[in-house]
Automatic annotation (TrEMBL):
Gene Ontology molecular function, alphabetical: protein phosphatase regulator activity
Keywords: Repeat
Protein name: PP4R1 phosphatase
Positions of HEAT repeats: 115-154
Location of the region described as Disordered in the Swiss-Prot/TrEMBL record: 246-269
Matching Pfam families: HEAT
Source organism: Ploceus nigricollis
Gene for this chain: Ppp4r1_2
Amino acid sequence: EPTVRTELMEQIPPIAIFLQESRPKFPTAFFEYLMPIVVRYLTDVNNQVRKAGQEALLILLEQDLVAQSDIENKVCPILLDLSAPDSDDEYKVEAVNIICKMASMLSRTTVEHMLLPRFCELCSDGKLFQVRKICAANFGDICNAVGQEATERLLIPKFFELCSDSVWGMRKACAECFMAVSYTTSPEVRRSKLSPLFISLISDTCRWVRQAAFQSLGPFISTFANPSSAGLYIREDGTLSIRPPAQDVNSNSCPPNNNITVSSSANAA
């Protein structure tokens, strides 16, 4: 029964945590028995079971309970199969969603070598706009996961494609994550490539795209500031934060540890 499999998936994370805490007694129980179940349920015929399996997998990754070898040899191959061009539409949408969510929890090497090529393919998926929409919405997170070199070499060309997509929702999603993408690039790329691209979004024919671009204008401009002097930085949760200058911290006008936090437009959407 699907309900039984769904309930089972919901119990996997707490069981895994228990086994982790009791590792001397159960050194291989999770990897031998539970992890294969999680992987198998990612391809279950019932969508509720698959959803429960995806949620369980993310919790396990977040808690650092999955071995690197299992990620590379078991989890990633399944996701690559599910997101292949000839895969079922429903499976493909779910796979790209889980790829984007897990990218921030994996090592940069794993993301760049195993998941980034497929992500770039999915950005150009001409069959399903839902797939491109997920890629656009999570573009900043993928850039942050792989770093500046891979972003400029592989992702920026795809970002240009998405920013000129015929579906206005795609362009809006790009405008919302523009600050996160810009923050990952060099000042030269920011000035010569991203600035003209941002102007095109601010001048877009769709008012929803223009509105999203104007909301991202301030955060985008902030990426041009020198972090050492301006105190601007991106937190792990994706928000833009401002540290008070050192000279002000010691003065009476600014209390110590008084940070001003501004949410990026990607989070505000």
